[in-house]
């Protein structure tokens, strides 16, 4: 009987070790901005204002803002941000989540759009693709600025 218990325990130890995945699931570092490149700050460390999912393009976008922009968006919905406010629209390509069936998570950053507000000039729009090391000239600058400024702050409890 004692021998049977030892064999059973040994088999249980081997079988429990076989059930573990070799791949460790941790932080989604691929979706983060490791090196801000030409950006003056890392937008992912700022305040999230709202988010949008675009299933047709398999992308997700989050609108981030500095403290001034975040506080203004919380109190106003007109999109006329004060001087010193900075907004970032960060868009990611989506991938399936290995931990949750049917869920999607960000994969890699596709674009980063930056809008900076000053007292004397119109909003300054800059576009970065992927790793944010180079600034690009957008073809639809006016439309993108209007779209980003038209987004309202997400309501949360």
Structure overview:
Residues 1-21 form the signal peptide. This is Cytochrome P460 domain-containing protein. It comes from Niastella populi. Keywords: Signal. Strands 1-2-3-4-5-6 form a 6-stranded antiparallel beta sheet. It has helices spanning 2-18, 67-75, 141-149, and strands spanning 47-54, 59-65, 86-96, 104-116, 124-129, 135-136. The protein has 3 helices and 6 strands; from the N terminus they run αββαββββα. 22% of the residues lie in helices and 30% in strands. It is of the alpha+beta class. It has one domain. The termini are far apart. The chain is globular, with a radius of gyration of 23 Å.
- The domain tally reads 1
Assembly classification: single chain
Q: From the helix content, strand content and strand pairing, which structural class follows?
A: alpha+beta
- The run of helices and strands is HEEHEEEEH
- Mean of the pLDDT scores? 86
Please report the total strand number as a whole number: 6
Q: In what order do the strands lie side by side in the largest sheet?
A: 1-2-3-4-5-6
Principal-axes shape call: globular
Distance between the termini: 60 Å
Tell me the number of helical segments per DSSP (H or I, 4 or more residues long): 3
Major sheet summary line: 6 strands, antiparallel
Sheet-strand content, in percent, reads: 25-35%
Cα-atom radius of gyration: 23 Å
Unreliable segments of 5+ consecutive residues = none
Helix content: 10-25%
Protein name: Cytochrome P460 domain-containing protein
Keywords: Signal
Organism: Niastella populi
């Amino acid at each position: 009987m004692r021998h049977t218990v030892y064999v059973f325990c040994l088999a249980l130890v081997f079988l429990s070790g076989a059930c573990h995945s070799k791949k460790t699931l941790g932080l989604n570092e691929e979706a983060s901005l490791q090196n801000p490149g030409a950006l003056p700050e890392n937008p992912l460390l700022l305040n999230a204002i709202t988010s949008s999912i675009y299933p047709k393009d398999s992308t997700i976008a989050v609108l981030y803002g500095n403290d001034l922009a975040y506080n203004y968006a919380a109190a106003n919905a007109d999109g006329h941000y004060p001087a010193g406010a900075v907004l970032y629209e960060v868009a990611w390509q989506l991938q399936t989540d290995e931990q949750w069936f049917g869920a999607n998570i960000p994969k890699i950053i596709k674009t980063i759009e930056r809008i900076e507000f000053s007292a004397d000039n119109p909003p300054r729009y800059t576009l970065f693709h992927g790793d944010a090391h180079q600034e690009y000239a957008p073809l639809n600058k006016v439309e993108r600025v209007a779209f980003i400024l038209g987004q309202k702050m997400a309501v949360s409890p």
